[in-house]
Model the fold of this input.
Amino acid sequence: MSEDGAVGIVLVSHSAEVAASVAALAKGLSGGAAAVPVAPAGGTEGGGLGTSAELIAAAAASVDRGAGVAVLTDLGSAVLTVKALLAEGDELPEGTRLVDAPFVEGAVAAVVTAAAGGDLDAVEAAAAEAYAYRKV
Done:
């Protein structure tokens, strides 16, 4: 795996609108992060609520720049779908990693870290660290 590009980030939600909105929020809060490839993978192919292995695989392929792909999920079956894709071994780009992180805060931290040139380990660590963010 080459380290030529930024870490790609895929945001998997049961809702296409939620995935797209979180992607826009994360990119916006990171100053646009134009160099960071971020793709939402929300809902089903038919536009309904749920998760789609095909949409997730396509999103991961679209953001793969050779530096790894961090996948963040919203709820249970999204996690299971990504785990199944990873277990198949050939559906996702090499270096794809399911990141255990809160969806919104983790997405922002992941995009900011990738925009700063962080590698996949740094992106994963920043996203996971978001569990510790205190709001009050």
Notes: The mean pLDDT is 93. The radius of gyration is 13 Å.
